Amino acid sequence: MDGVNWVEIKVGQVWRCRDGQERRVVNNDGHKDWPWALENGDSVTDNGTEFESGESSSDLIELVKDENGFTIWRGGKCPVSGDSLVEYRLRSGTVSTDQAKVLDWSYDEDSDEADIVAYKV
Asked: Which letter does DSSP use for residue 94 in this model?
């Protein structure tokens, strides 16, 4: 499977790159080797690398926001004001909306289906 850490690259996603900067995927021009164009003008392979071999500052490392604008969540302290209304996606795939303060923002390493895996305010 192509992708980065088992995540398929899609237009609209925001990725953290090897240099620590975040870059949006702006299009796929269908190029055989480097189809994915990033907002800084660089292009990457289906595996998220700028070069076939060797490391580059534009290599995609970690998905930050998906193509629907959801911020990827890996658990921890509530990331927004408790009164904020958030749309969130659970590991099960269910999407709901609620106030941040009533949600459990922790993350269970045992792959609990009720874990929040992504959110947007």
From this structure: -
